[in-house]
Amino acid sequence: MSDEIDQLMSELKATKNLGNFLQPAPVKPTEQPIVTEENINDFILKTSSKVIQQGVDTIDSVRGAVVQGGAPEEIEALSQLISAVTGSIDVLNKINLQNKKAVSAKELKELDMNHRKQLQASKGPTHNTNILIAGREEVMKKLIDHIDKTSVIEVKSEDSTPEDVSPDHPATE
């Protein structure tokens, strides 16, 4: 009888050691990075992709057991997990599309600016240095000083003389 007890005790010890082997390793807390304005996008993308990957791995590992078990609570939990992972993927996809749209808009703006510069260069240099800061009197004086005296045309009529048109003497016929 003592041989049987010893044998039973050795089997239990072997099973106890085997139980330690089958237990999952304890999860070590990860070091939290310092999040700043410069690295917040990288942080969000890395943690989101990690969460999504864990969700997909969990779905793959649990799906067979949940479907075979048929418990409504487990099926509902699996469907909620699938919905959450799908929603997370959609959000990451929207972020990715928004980033691509911003990059393409920036490239388009640069192309437009380069095109405008090329058009201006092809038209030749334009110099708008004709800026005048003066009062009304100064502008009128400059205009009057620049009048060419030879361009003034005197018109004389053969029918009337300057005396005939004067306000003191009415025109006589």
Mean pLDDT: 78
Class of secondary structure makeup: mainly alpha
Number of helices: 4
The Cα radius of gyration reads 47 Å
**Count of β-strands:** 0
Largest sheet: none
Strands, helices and their partners?
Layout: H1 2-22, H2 40-69, H3 72-123, H4 136-145
Helix pairs in contact: 2-3
Description:
The structure is a single chain. The chain has helices at 2-22, 40-69, 72-123, 136-145. The radius of gyration is 47 Å and the shape is rod-shaped. It has a domain at 38-125. The chain has 4 helices and no strands. Helix content is 65%, strand content 0%. With 173 residues, it is mainly alpha-helical. α2 packs antiparallel against α3. The N and C termini lie far apart (167 Å).
Give a quick summary of the entry.
This protein has helices at 2-22, 40-69, 72-123, 136-145.
List its salient traits.
173 residues, mainly alpha, single chain
